[in-house]
Amino acid sequence: MTTSHSVIHIVALTEAGHQLAKNLVEKMHAYKIEDAEQTVDIWYKPKPFAEKVQQAFVRGERLIFICATGIVVRILAPVLQDKHSDPAILILDEAGKFVIPLLSGHEGGANDWANQISELINAQLVMTTANPYLKPIYTVGMGCERHCPLEYLSELLHQCLSQVGLTIEQVHSISSIDIKADETHLIELAKKLNKPFITWNKDDLRTVESQLSTHSDYIFKTVGVYGVAESAALYSAQFEAGQAAELVLNKHKNAKATCAIARSYPAVNPTK
């Protein structure tokens, strides 16, 4: 199966569902839930229904169904592969009260996507996967040259958020290494966005070095860690959630700054 995140189809089978689909598309565009490379279209009572939906699924195109869960299960059953290759599938009721990530919750990103959609339309997220998490903790890690101008930091951060379909409101904090604790424009950026600015020492950051996407010997010789942005993002998410984090976006950079995004999920106390 060839996975394609460039197309999203919203499938509606009733007039009420069709109206919800149109409202959803407007909000996805307005709040940039889809990135610039993606297209979102509405399939209202598509024909032939089974064939069209199954072909889109096999192409790896993401689907939002506004209909009964049973219909979706029966239609997709013949083309299901596995959680590593199936595209993300969401289900909404036609009243827009509930959002269910049906397939590829973790690996395909359906859980996070469903969380975004539920917040967008003020619906209840119905999570049925083994981990009962509703709100992932997202953290941004940033590194930069000394006295990096604010515009380089701000532009890079917003580009990175857009690439993974996040808004700044979903981000817990902005973090870096402790030698950047006095970096004027990193502090200003966090203050402007009303986010905590947190710095960590190299010993803290080195605890997550095995998870880095790249290891820079030059950065290590300079500051004592193999990558500032990824390390800071990972350690912050791990610290806040109380358990291991993962990179949502590997390090991206411009001429003067680097940025990475990580997430974790709050530890669940089984006694509660």
Automatic annotation (TrEMBL):
InterPro entries membership: CbiG_hydrolase, CbiG_N, CobE/GbiG_C, CobE/GbiG_C_sf, GbiG_N_sf
Protein name, per record: Cobalamin biosynthesis protein
Pfam families, per database record: CbiG_C, CbiG_N
Occurrences of domain Cobalamin synthesis G N-terminal (ranges): 53-130
SUPFAM superfamilies noted in UniProt: CbiG N-terminal domain-like (SSF159672), CobE/GbiG C-terminal domain-like (SSF159664)
Domain CobE/GbiG C-terminal: 139-262
Top-level taxon in the UniProt lineage: Bacteria
Source organism per UniProt: Oleispira antarctica RB-8
GO biological process, one term: cobalamin biosynthetic process
